[in-house]
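In response to a reviewer's request, we include the raw inputs and outputs for one of the modeled complexes. The two entities were modeled together in a single run.
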Amino acid sequence: MLKRISKVERIGIQILTFSSHLLIGDSTIINAKSDTFAVKRDKELFLENEGDVINYGIFSLPLILPPIDQQIYYRNQHMCGCIVVNRINILGATSSSIIQIGSNKNIYLENRRKEIRQIAEPENIQKATNQTE
Amino acid sequence: MILEVINHDLHVVNINIIAIASSSAVLVGDTDSMQMVCAYDSPSSSLLIGPFVPIATR
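The model returned the following structure tokens for the whole complex.
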């Protein structure tokens, strides 16, 4: 399939983290995968041997996707051969996200996230239980 | 299914985005297929109240 030319005059991005990509140019296949194990605590505590053995179901459960092998008769006409954007401003990209200037064929992005909150201080227990209700 | 697309002139002046997160995409261009999956697990059982215990140590 004939693709158009992308033309961006100016792009500004502040943060790119956790298998996120900025891609300038054409590509064929992008597969990005990111597993996050997030622990929030009401005290600043980091134990470096934590999270070595993570066997939560969310990291192993199969994700069922709709098939993309449907027979579609697709035809496109490009009256203008380019996409023009003057300015792009992005503050942050995270957790297997893609910023691409250019054409692509197949994109597959996957992100699994397990979040745990630990609360020890008595005054914060009341606050946390009010939030969940 | 028959799909016929005619792309005319496309000119965008300004794009402002705060955040792109959890397997999302910003694409200035053409693509054939996109598949995005995000699984987020934060059940009520993940709220642990009590003294700090290390999680999933070897």
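As requested, we also summarize the result in words. The radius of gyration of chain B is 22 Å. Chain B has no helices and five strands.
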